[in-house]
Specification:
Blueprint: H1 5-16, E1 23-27, E2 31-34, E3 43-47, E4 52-55, E5 64-68, E6 74-78, E7 82-86, H2 93-96, H3 106-115, E8 125-128, E9 133-137, E10 142-151, H4 152-156, E11 190-194, H5 205-210, E12 217-221, H6 222-226, H7 229-244, E13 246-254, E14 257-259, E15 272-274, E16 278-279, E17 284-285, E18 289-296, E19 304-311, H8 330-337, H9 347-355
Antiparallel strand pairs: 1-4, 1-7, 2-3, 5-6, 8-9, 9-10, 10-13, 11-12, 13-18, 14-15, 16-17, 18-19
Length: 362
């Protein structure tokens, strides 16, 4: 059986009731949880002051307590940086949906460190994959941002064939996720549009398969968008990475307010409304535009950046299908999405590269 953090915490609670006194620790200062009861052991988790974890036993080993981590693993924390209390940590929402970068497995932490080298947006349910990370909105039932780092070696590696086996994402509760049926039937005008492209993930079987999970998918118009301008940008990214060797790509949907078209009963009128289509019985949101940011960090103090903002429309041959038409700056995308990008870069570097659009594509 695969335990979620909530199921694990609940099962440990039930399993230990009646078996003796229960305990938990509270960090008295910033602390670390290690994989062995040794000061030199590998760090599994950082604790801030006042954070709490349940304890397997009040007995110490080499001056360390054996604690349960939010993801179901166990670790060791020094008695000198925590206080021991009787009882158990109450099961809370934080244990059901851990904050970003907490409660990840060792492998997930490696993936996150790789993809988030330049920082990442905040907010939404975050899922870390081998090939990408995603911030997912359970109301709109689409990814709000997807970020991944692509190297030339990965781009040139097509060891695993591209499949069309799309699937729902079991990591999202059923009431908050899209289904295959949402993209079928009467919604034939829309296709399943990848945010992290499957062709960028063929260096790993797991990454290629995970790219087809619906948490990496948003509804896109078919041949006149997904198969034209969006595919052109994806193909160009793969050509750029062959020359530039290492790029970080961030992409996602945009929802723009439109002039008011409908009166909402018993509400004062406003000049604008957020208006968008939905598909399927789960009402999966159809974005009004998509963004893509491409970052080359070979010069950390002066990175090369391309930012695109592409209206989600049936494009026509000509300028509407040339990627140069959609160059913008990151500030504009942040204004429209409410996201903050490149958060690991110095503030002065962020401000400089985010306000100035590229004059041409690479």
């Amino acid at each position: 059986m695969r335990f979620t953090p909530f199921v694990f915490a609940l099962s440990m609670f039930l399993a230990t009731r009646g078996l003796g006194q229960e305990f938990y620790i509270e960090a008295s200062r910033d602390a670390v949880v290690r994989d062995e009861p040794l000061k030199t052991a590998r760090v599994l988790l950082h604790l801030e002051r006042s954070e709490q974890l349940n304890v397997a036993t009040s007995e110490q080993t080499n001056g360390f307590y054996n604690v349960f981590l939010p993801n179901g693993e166990t670790g060791w924390v020094s008695r000198y940086v925590v206080r021991l209390h009787e009882g158990r940590v109450p099961i809370s929402l934080g244990e059901v949906l851990p904050a970003p970068d907490s409660g990840l497995t060792a492998r997930q932490r490696e993936y996150a460190a790789f993809h988030h080298a330049i920082g990442k947006p905040r907010g939404y349910r975050e899922i870390v994959r081998e090939g990408y990370t995603v911030g997912y909105d359970t109301k709109l039932k689409i990814p709000i941002w997807v970020q991944y780092r692509l190297t030339a070696e990965r781009s040139e590696d097509d060891s695993f064939p591209r499949s069309s086996a799309f699937d729902e994402d079991a990591e999202i509760p059923a009431q908050g996720r899209a289904t295959l049926e949402d993209y079928a039937g009467d919604n034939s005008g829309y296709v399943r549009g990848h945010m992290a492209p499957a062709d960028d993930m063929r260096w790993s079987q797991a990454s290629e398969q995970q790219s087809n999970l619906l948490t990496n998918i948003a509804p896109q118009i078919g041949s006149a968008f997904n198969g034209s301008i969006w595919k052109t940008i994806e193909d160009r990214v793969r050509s750029w990475v062959r020359d530039r060797r290492d790029l970080t790509i961030i992409c996602g949907p945009v929802f723009e307010a439109r002039p008011r078209v409908h009166e909402i009963e018993r509400q004062p009128e406003t000049d604008r409304q957020m208006l968008f289509n939905v598909i399927g019985s789960n009402e999966v949101a159809v974005p009004s535009a998509f963004f893509k940011i491409v970052v080359d960090m070979q010069r950390p103090q002066n990175p090369d950046v391309l930012a695109f903002l592409v209206p989600h429309i049936e494009t026509a041959a000509g300028p509407e299908r040339r990627i140069e038409t959609y160059l913008t700056n990151i500030d504009r995308i942040e204004q429209l999405t409410g996201l903050d990008f490149l958060t690991n870069l110095p503030q002065n570097v962020q401000e400089e590269i985010e306000r100035s659009p590229a004059m041409a594509v690479w």
